[in-house]
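Quick start: load a record and inspect it. Here is HTH-type transcriptional regulator BetI:
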Amino acid sequence: MTSAAPTDPDVGEEPGRRLSSQERRAQIILAALTVFGSRGYEGATTDQVAKAAGVSQPYVVRLFGSKENLFLATIEFSLDRLLAAFRAALAASDEGGERPVGKRIGEAYVDLIEVRGLHQTLAHAYLLGSNPAIGAAARQGFVRVWRFFRDEVGLDADEARTFLAEGMLISTMIGLRIVDDYGSDPQITELFRACFPNKLPHVLEVLPRNEHRL
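Running the structure step on this input writes:
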């Protein structure tokens, strides 16, 4: 006999339509990304995630079991979304030959800034290597990205290392929220222009700022 999916009368829904359990799960994971990305694993609470998702805290716990399980789900979601974007960029045609695959993948990584908290959540996960469950998931995910560059893109080890290093630099800049100093600090302005040569106006628009802290 199967148990019914947990229900929550506090879940925000469209009038006349009840969300499925999978839709609710996705809703909560997206909210969790913003909270974990802003506050980190230790600083975030399931109550904060529930408020961000518009559901009750007991519902979050019933659906995921614990904050650790919820964080693991956000890691899996982030890595799946990241690799899906990379694979779409890899498969995209470039008839003019002006945007090589490396550039397309780099732009796909930058575009994911629009998924608020994704880069920061992964960055937090990579710092939790000593946590038995989270560290294992973060290591496996990091290797998945490495193998994508080596096996699917066909990069050599040095090229793959450069991609990962540049990605970590971008994630660090997002987490530092130094976008507030763009235009007033010459060094930070130069750094932004070097890292985002083709998407700078868009990046400046979507990057989280200090006043966006949850």
